[in-house]
Amino acid sequence: MQIRPMTPGDFAAFWPIFRDIAAARETYAFDPDMGQEDARALWFEAPLESWLAEEDGAILGSYFLKANAAGPGGHVGNCGYMVAPAARGKGVARAMCEHSQRRARARGFLALQFNSVVATNEAAVALWQKLGFDIVGRLPRAYRHAAHGLVDCLVMYKWLEDEPRLAMPEPVRLIGRKNIEATVSRRRKRE
């Protein structure tokens, strides 16, 4: 498998994959009736980079990389990934996600955030977690799934820098009245 920059001519070949995934209404909140030119603007022209995964001339998938927000939030990147149905389960999404993290670092992003991972897309959620993304938020009933109706979306986040993750402080231990009295009594006896 090769992952290379998408060229203007590549989008037409990728379009059937995009169209079918958007029309399925299972993973992306894109208008299922979106036309090719609008899709091209969204996936290829607006992002900083768009990449294509292929093997022996067959398109396996694509991803884009862009800033998640502007100004003070511009250090956090955002990606979208699509894998051709025939290529699912073959490591394409993993390879593209690992590639996108390297590209994000090269572009100066310090983190990646996925704003709306459909919770019923269990394979993607599990893969992103294996690749170090944390679920940092849940949007109740934020997606109208074609088969499941209203389902939750997840916000997922990964800090890309090599510094160790900050450990969460230990929760404060609540103690009952008898334990407080015993602790205070022990202190007084020692003093």
Automatic annotation (TrEMBL):
GO molecular function: acyltransferase activity, transferring groups other than amino-acyl groups
Record's keyword annotation contains Translocase: no
Record-annotated N-acetyltransferase domain positions: 1-161
One Pfam family in the UniProt entry: Acetyltransf_1
The keyword Lyase belongs to this UniProt entry's keyword annotation: no
Keywords: Transferase
Entry superkingdom: Bacteria
PROSITE patterns, sorted: GNAT
Signal peptide bounds: none
Annotated PANTHER family: ACETYLTRANSFERASE, GNAT FAMILY, N-ACETYLTRANSFERASE ACA1
Name of the featured protein: GNAT family N-acetyltransferase
Originating organism: Chromobacterium phragmitis
Organism lineage string: Bacteria, Pseudomonadati, Pseudomonadota, Betaproteobacteria, Neisseriales
